[in-house]
Design brief:
Layout (H helix, E strand, L loop, with lengths): L6 E5 L5 E5 L10 H15 L7 E5 L10 H8 L3 H19 L5 E5 L2 E3 L1 H8 L2 E5 L3 E3 L13 H8 L1 H10 L2 E3 H7 L4 E3 L4 H12 L4 H14 L6 H16 L1 H11 L17
Parallel strand pairs: 2-3, 3-4, 4-6, 5-7, 6-9
Antiparallel strand pairs: 1-2, 7-8
């Protein structure tokens, strides 16, 4: 794994990683370097077939304040083609996170403005603090949430996206949960403990089945119920049933024991 100046990657021996936004003195605001490092980090993590899932977090008080002011000031002096290159780089980041093979969970505290909502929307799941403050703030400074907009619309729906992108209203973590952007919210003092609860729950699940299910849901999306989609779904369950983890899971269920990927002593209710 490369050394980064705007990020940290930490690994848990249980098989997952945390990708930390780490510009705490800048409230984890984006600049060109952070965007490039995020792309590199995601590409490298994507090569790790043993990675069970990925957490995306921000160091310090805030998840991310959005775009760095100094970077935006520099961008204002650039011509169209150079700005287009910057936009393509941000787009590459969003698509890399969206198509990441392993499940992704964003953890949101403090501020999450502008492009930070794109990162949250690109993750499979997100939780946060009740008092988090979120905002699609671009129109306040004469811009538009262009690159992140497809992901935000998927996450919260077209009508809500129109409201918050056009009004630039701030909204709380509780409202973000009501919109579906965050799955759950908790008092800020309890957030770290709840992250551990989410981790413990994800660790109960077959790593291979998690990836296969993520691929399946991406393929299904909200598309047409076509013959091709039916065949894809049928092939998916057939493949996973005969896989090593599929066979282990079925045997463990029938033998009333824990499957091999569950290594702790927690007792989970049987399905």
């Amino acid at each position: 794994m490369s050394d980064f100046s705007t990020l940290e990657v930490t690994r848990d021996p249980r098989g997952f990683a945390t990708l930390w936004l780490s510009r705490e003195d800048k409230n984890n605001a984006f600049n060109a370097l952070m965007i490039r490092e995020l792309i590199v980090a995601l590409d490298q993590l994507a090569e790790e077939a043993s990675l069970r899932f990925l957490l995306l977090r921000g160091r310090g008080r805030h998840f991310s304040a959005g775009a760095d002011l100094a970077w935006m000031q520099q961008s204002a002096q650039l011509d169209f083609n150079t700005n287009l290159d910057d936009a393509r780089e941000l787009g590459e980041l969003m698509y890399a996170l969206h198509r990441f093979k392993a499940p992704t969970l964003a953890v949101v505290q403090g501020a999450a403005f502008g492009g930070a909502l794109g990162l949250i929307s690109c993750c499979d799941m997100a939780i946060g603090a009740e008092d988090a403050q979120l905002c699609l703030s671009e129109v306040r400074i004469g811009l538009a949430p262009a690159v992140i907009s497809p992901f935000v619309v998927k996450a919260i729906g077209e009508r809500a996206a129109r409201r918050y992108a056009l009004s630039a209203e701030r909204f709380s973590g509780v409202r973000a949960r009501d919109l579906g952007l965050l799955a759950e919210v908790y008092p800020a003092s309890e957030l770290d403990a709840q992250v551990e609860a989410w981790v413990d729950n994800l660790l109960q699940n077959s790593p291979q089945a998690l990836r296969a299910t993520k691929d399946l849901l991406r393929e299904v999306d909200d598309g047409e119920l076509s013959p091709a989609l039916r065949r894809y779904c049928e092939n998916t369950i057939a493949r996973i049933r005969v896989s090593a983890e599929g066979q282990e899971g079925l045997r463990a269920f029938l033998e009333k024991r824990r499957p091999a990927w569950q290594t702790d002593d927690k007792k989970e209710p049987r399905p």
